[in-house]
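Hi V.,

You were right to ask for the full record rather than a summary. Here it is.
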Amino acid sequence: RENLTHMETKLTDAESQSAALKAEMERHIEGLKTELEASQAKSIDLESSLVAEREASAAKYSELEAEKTSIEAELQDRIESHNAEVESMRENLTNIETKLADAESQSVALKAEMER
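Predicted structure:
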């Protein structure tokens, strides 16, 4: 009988320990689930942030590319305008040189005529 009581006590203790371990494991599992959910939420937030940053970066790149194209076009217009001015100045210089040569010829001719 004493042996039976001892065995019942051990069985009760073992059942208590088993229940306590089971409760502890369930709490641990719940904690891990909570951590996993938090980690997944953070991962989703980070992914959303990354997508938003990529989109913003792509928009900024497009904006800068458009600005570059605009500046290049403006510079090309200025170069063409400058080249046209230079060409006009060359033509004016050629006209002046021609008039000067004509004036010198007339001057030589008048001088020759006056000497006769």
